[in-house]
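During the second year of the project, the team shifted from modelling isolated chains to modelling whole assemblies. The rationale, set out in the original proposal, was that interfaces cannot be judged from single-chain predictions alone. As a representative example for this report, we include one of the complexes processed in the last quarter. Its constituent sequences, exactly as entered into the pipeline, are reproduced here:
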Amino acid sequence: MASSIDILELLQRPATEVAPFLLGALVRHESPEGPVVVRLTEVEAYLGPKDSQDPDPGAHTYRGKTERNSVMFGPPGHLYVYFSYGMHFSANLVCRPEGTSSGCLMRAGEIVEGLDLARLRRPTAKRDSELAQGPARLAKAMGFGREHNGIAALGGEVTVTLPDRPTTAVMAGPRVGISGPGGTDEYPWRFWIGGDPTVSKFKPGVVRPPRRRAPAVQKTQ
DNA sequence: GGCGGGATATTCT
DNA sequence: GAATATCCCGCCC
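Output from the structure prediction step:
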């Protein structure tokens, strides 16, 4: 099943353009314990200093190359896995040619294969929709850790496959967990699939649609 | 279901 | 020393 869009060609472009096309994409990880596949429902774009005239203050690479973020400056189609808050891993797909530093953070998704293994890795999840509901949860359910930083993501242990058709119900809004200028809607670079139950519940700027008071009687199962 | 706080390593000031 | 591209748990509606 060849996708209508060539992924390597797509990944040459800035993360802000790539991100919407990653919605619905399948990320497969063949670990020694077994395979787990996630269908991405939420991603965030980050641009490096050279990827835009308007630098992205929210990006890890905003102040240039460091030991931690060096993979982001490498070739596209690789994983940038970083460790934060002293306990969590999160995974990005590197975009743009070598020397630049764009990337898409995989924020949430639906586990479509390897449910048992994902449940084992995420024992605190109460429901399957929570298995990869959030960047650190997704990384944990997929088994991504320090050892996956810099590995190829287009074949081998990890493979990303674009959906046959681009997702239509694309929503966009401010990014999450970023204080200061980078988090405002000047940078509406978080993309998600509208209405999907696996999209993360972000606190900041919680734009909950006004909950309509339901008639007390009806309960459609 | 919605808050507040704690945990904890790496990075940069 | 402070901040962090977060999650979990306990407590309170």
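Residues 63, 66-68, 82-88, 203 of chain A lie near DNA strand B (CB under 10 Å from a C1'). Confidence is low (pLDDT under 50) at residues 204-221 of chain A.
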